Amino acid sequence: KQLDEKSLKEPIQELIELMIANEVAVEVATEIGERVKRELIEAGTEQERFKDVRPLLREALRKAIKEVITPPGGGIDLFEEIRKKREEGDPYVIVMEGINGTGKTTTMAKLAHKFQKAGFSVVFAASDTFRAGAIDQLSKHGEKLGIKTIKHQQGGDPTAVAIDALDHAYAKGIDVVMVDTAGRMQNNDNLIRELKKVVDKTEADMRIFVGDSLAGNDVIRQAREFADRVGVDAVIMTKADSDVKGGAVLSVAHTVGKPILYLGVGQGYDDLQEFDADFLVDQILP
Amino acid sequence: SLGKSLNSAITKVLRRGPVDADLIRELKNDIFKALLEADVEINVASEVVNRVEQRSLSEKLPPGLERNKAVINIVYEELTKIMGDRAYPLNIQKGKTNIIMVVGIQGSGKTTTIGKLANFLKKQKWNVGLVCTDTWRPGAYEQLLQLGTNAGVDVFGDPKQKNAIKLATKGVKEFKKSGKDVIIVDTAGRHKEETELIKEMKKLDKKLHPDEIILVIDGTLGQVAKKQALEFKKATDIGSIIVTKLDGTAKGGGAISASVSTGAPIKFIGTGEGLDDFEPFDPKKFVGRILG
Ligand SMILES: Nc1nc2c(ncn2[C@@H]2O[C@H](COP(=O)(O)OP(=O)(O)OP(=O)(O)O)[C@@H](O)[C@H]2O)c(=O)[nH]1
Ligand SMILES: Nc1nc2c(ncn2[C@@H]2O[C@H](COP(=O)(O)OP(=O)(O)OP(=O)(O)O)[C@@H](O)[C@H]2O)c(=O)[nH]1
Ligand SMILES: [Mg+2]
Ligand SMILES: [Mg+2]
User: Fold this and answer.
1) How far A239 CA lies from chain B's nearest CA (Å)?
2) Which residue from B101, B103, B106, B112 has its CB within 8 A of the most atoms of ligand 2, so it is best to mutate?
3) What is the pLDDT along chain B (292 residues), one digit of tens a residue?
């Protein structure tokens, strides 16, 4: 007989709650669950009488989740993008963005380490000119990695630092300019405007939203605002080494529709892991 | 906002006439969804709505629109009940050297919060000293030094020393000598999977015998808050919680879940990056934030 609202309502609700328990934002779990239910009904899907609808529903949901976290154009090949820019004689500009404490500075250092291993040259822009110890923190990473950090006075203009680093890259033929920015709440209009200025004036090639895998429903509000008001080209979710199922990754992917570049899996320079979509689906809906 | 969705849920259900079990169940599901959206842990949320359902069915509710208010009040009461109904002070006493140890997950806001707490206590005439024992994060000492200096308190640290325990004992010793009556010890961020770091935290606890261990929790923390907090509680006797980043849009349900499950009361909240963005916890105000 055909699947209908009555036969699917409770089973889909169970799966939505399972996704929520596995850290997916309520809005995202509900949207994906309701959409799958609707599609099964509209497709006139049939099933033997008295057969349990749950396995079929689960499989359809897993497929839907996989689609959300697999971007339509395929991923981004960062190394290829950097090479293309180098051929045009321009440095590749990356700006890290996100709310306070998600791991932007540490992630930037990890990425820089990857670029160096691939043979690219990097310069850091210490555009977090606000937070106590921010310039120190980035400079110390720079020293450890052998990367120059362009910095101004604390309290200086973040955009000026980024432009200074860009000039330095042109002068010295540096392949990648990496701009570290201060954490900011997405509902702080002044700080969002400040970040937009950095992105616009440097004509950033890659705006990376850095999100915390431990975050709950707020992560979609963060991702949405940064994507709408500043722009996001790709995502890195950090702290995936902590005991998380990874629902937050799905929430962000669903909200911004951009590729998940990497997962941060620790505090060391090598702790950046390629994102595995199948693994995440198994975590969220085993 | 949660408040809007909660209010409309209650209005829609109760406008439909006499209260019956089906209506209350529908309301219960809407409240459950609203609490989950506020990041309240799923089991904590279902306990709360079960009690709301029970009370709404067994208590004599007033007629008409007053019924709305009565149910909202029950939700409000059940939430404040799990938050603790009053503000608890820090476990520090004048006339002795008090040691406060601050722990929490990476990036939750420990170092920034310590600056704020130092500023708060100094204004209350405590003689405060800060000790940096974070040997992992580049620039950790410089960060605490700047915050402490802004708050007008002394800061002890030694970026060359890689042993957190040695830093803690040396810092406490020096500050005891110089007559501090509150010493706040900053620690490196850690989560429960990092067994070596959890071990280090236990060792610090044993060495310092803190009068209070504060768990700093990021206001954006989601469903994992409860199990993370329980692990911290298992390792060290968490006395209280400070919730940060509530100037953003997070509702703080994770912190509530952490407090409920560990029994550690929330004592302060962080509402920004500045030294004064710091308030003693007010359970009624917090529930008001969750309910919009
Ligand atoms: N376990 C773990 N810790 C991480 C990871 N990424 C970052 N961290 C830690 O999280 C903390 C915060 O990292 P930062 O790089 O300072 O974060 P941020 O976003 O730059 O912070 P603000 O600039 O203050 O907004 C540090 O202790 C990092 O070591 C990760 O993937 N796993
Ligand atoms: N907006 C806002 N930002 C906050 C608040 N509390 C802390 N922060 C910011 O959050 C970020 C992380 O704060 P830290 O104090 O470095 O966090 P931490 O727990 O010491 O980090 P680790 O030592 O790396 O584990 C910084 O950018 C702080 O300024 C708050 O209440 N509101
Ligand atoms: Mg930073
Ligand atoms: Mg710190």
Assistant:
1) 8
2) B112
3) 445 666 677 677 666 666 677 878 888 888 899 899 999 999 999 999 999 999 988 888 777 667 767 877 888 899 888 887 778 999 999 999 999 999 999 999 999 999 999 999 999 999 999 999 999 999 999 999 999 999 999 999 999 999 999 999 999 999 999 999 999 999 999 999 999 999 999 999 999 999 999 999 999 999 999 999 999 999 999 999 999 999 999 999 999 999 999 999 999 999 999 999 999 999 888 888 887 6
User: What single letter denotes the amino acid at residue A51?
Assistant: K
- Which of A225, A229, A281 has the alpha carbon at shortest distance from A255? A225
What does the pLDDT look like over B186-209, one tens digit per residue? 999 999 999 999 999 999 999 999
pLDDT single digits (tens) B217-245: 999 999 999 999 999 999 999 999 999 99
User: Which residues of A lie closer than 8 Å to B, measured between beta carbons?
Assistant: 17, 20-23, 25-27, 99-103, 130-134, 136-137, 139-141, 144, 185-188, 212, 214-219, 221-222, 239, 241-244, 247-248, 267
Contacts of B86 (CB under 8 A, 6+ apart): B283
Query: Strand (E) positions, A141-181?
Result: 148-150, 176-181
B243 close to B210: Cβ distance less than 8 angstroms: no
Strands A260-264 and A272-274 turn out to be: antiparallel
Rounded CA separation B176/B68 (Å): 57
* Ligand 2 binding pocket includes A187 (Cβ within 6 Å): no
**Cα–Cα distance for residue pair A71/A275, rounded to 1 Å:** 12
Alpha carbons A270 and A268: distance in angstroms, whole number: 5
Name the maximum alpha-carbon separation found in chain B. Answer: 71
What angle in degrees, to the nearest 10, is found between the helix axes of B140-151 and A134-145?
160
CA A210 to ligand 1: nearest atom: 19
Please tell me the distance from the alpha carbon of residue B160 to that of residue B146, in angstroms, as a whole number: 18
Report DSSP state, residue B182: E
Q: Which of A159, A202, A201, A212 is nearest to B39 (CA)?
A: A212
* Entry field: residues in chain B: 292
Residue bearing tokens 């930037």 = A108
Q: Which residue has the tokens 């850290």?
A: A23
Q: Is residue B222 within 8 Å of A217, Cβ to Cβ?
A: yes
d(CA B115, CA B279): 13
Rounded Cα distance, B226 and B231, in Å: 9
Sign of the four-CA dihedral A151, A152, A154, A157: negative
Residue B264 contacts by C-beta under 8 Å, 6 or more apart in sequence? B215, B229, B233, B238, B239, B240, B241, B258
Q: Identify the DSSP state of B88.
A: P
CA B190 to chain centre: 16
Starting from the CA of residue A236, give the closest ligand. 1
